[in-house]
Amino acid sequence: MNDYTQIIKEAELAVNKGDYRYCIKKLKPLINIFPVSTSEGVNIRFLLITASSGINNTEEAISFCKQLMKSNYSHIRDNGKSLLEIISSPILKTPESWNIKLDTKSLYGKNRIKSISNTSNSIKKEKFINTTQIPTGRTKSFQKGFTFFVSVFLVLMTLLLSGCVKIESNLDLRNIEEVNVSYLLESKFDTKLPWQLNLETEIKETLKDSVMNEGTNNFVLKNKSININETKETLNQFLKLVSESLEIDLEEIEFNYNQKNYLIAKRYFFDIIVNLQNLNRVENLELVINIASPSKVNLQTKENSIKVRENKLNWQLEPGEINHLIFNSWYWNKTLISTLIAFLIFLIAYLIRIKRYELGSSLPKLPS
C-alpha cells in the first residue's frame, strides 16, 4: 500500500506538471493489480483518463471510461458515462457563414493593401511548433486564502442543502395479513438533489413490481398487500438503496414481532431498531416512520421523538444514534365478536319469551 501511495503521488505530480506520458508509464502496470471494483482502481483510471486526454490518445481514454462504467457504484458509473460523452464528442468546425468579413479597402486605401500583402508574406515564413504532446509546465498554485474560503463555502452549502430532503416511511399494520408499505422522498426545493435522482433511478431498476408516482420535487413508492414477514425484507431493501446513494454503510433494520392469541382477539408486540450511527449529523436528513395500528397504541419506549395519537404513531429518527421503538396493540376479531353479540341478543330474547309464557296472561278468562 505504501508503494501504491508513492506511485499515486508521483503520477499526480506528473499530471500537475503536464508530463502525461510519465503518468501513464507509472500507472499502467497497476491496472491489473487494482480492478475497478476498488477505490484505488477507480482513482488510477481517472488519472489515466486525464493523462490520455492530455496527449490526445482518445482510444485509451475511452477504454478507461468504459471500465469505470462497470463499477458497482452508480455515481462512478455516471461519471464514467459523462466523461465518455465528452471525450467521444466530435470536433465541430465553425461555418463560414458565422464569420464576419469587413471591407477594409474603403477605409485604408492602397497603402493598407500593401501592408496586408507584406504581412501575408511574413506569415508564410513563420513556423509553428506542435505543442499538443509537450508538457505545459508546472501548474501554479492558488493564492493564499483561496482553499480556506472554498472549504468554508462547501461546508456551508452542505449544511444548507443536505437537510433539504425528507424520507418518510409509512407502515399500515391495521390488517396484519395484508400490510401496506409506502415511501415518500420529498425535496424542500423546486428541484431534486443529485443523490435523490440517483436513488430514484436505482429504485426504478430494482423495485420494478412496486407502484411508483413521480413529481417535480417528490417520489412515492408503494408496496401493497404484503404479509408481515415480507415487511422487514422490504424495509431493508429500501434502506440498502438509500445507503448506496449516500455512499454510507447503514446496518439493516431489526424488525421483530410476536403475538398472543386470545378467544376474541390477538395481541401483537413489535420491537424495531434502526441503527443510524454511521449516518453523520452533517447529512441531517429528515427521516420519519409513520405507523398505523389496528387499535390504540400502547407505547413502551419513552422518547421525545415518538408521538402517539390514538392508533397512529409518528417516529422521528435521529441520525448518528440507535433508534429503538417498542409498542404493542390489540387486533380484535370483529367477525367473532359480531357473532357472539348476535347470539347473546337471540338468547336474551328467547329467555324473555319463555319467562312471559310462565307468568301467563293477565287478561280475564272466558267461562268454560
What does this 3D model show about the protein?
With 368 residues, the protein is of the alpha+beta class. Among the domains are: 87 residues, Alpha Horseshoe (Serine Threonine Protein Phosphatase 5, Tetratricopeptide repeat), CATH 1.25.40; 170 residues, no CATH class. It has a seven-stranded mixed beta sheet. Helix 2 packs antiparallel against helix 3. The chain starts with a helix and ends in a 9-residue tail after the last helix.
- What share of residues are in beta strands? 15-25%
Q: Please state the CA-atom Rg, rounded to the nearest Å.
A: 37 Å
User: Helix/strand/pairing class, anyone?
Assistant: alpha+beta
Helix-strand topology string: HHHHHHHEEHEEHEEEEEEEH
Number of H/I helices: 10
Give me the side-by-side strand order of the main sheet: 3-4-2-1-7-10-9
Provide a compact summary of the structure:
The protein has helices at 2-17, 20-27, 39-54, 58-68, 74-88, 105-125, 146-162, 194-206, 228-246, 334-359; strands spanning 165-172, 179-187, 211-214, 218-226, 254-261, 265-275, 286-292, 298-299, 306-309, 312-317, 322-332. The protein is an alpha+beta fold and 368 residues long.
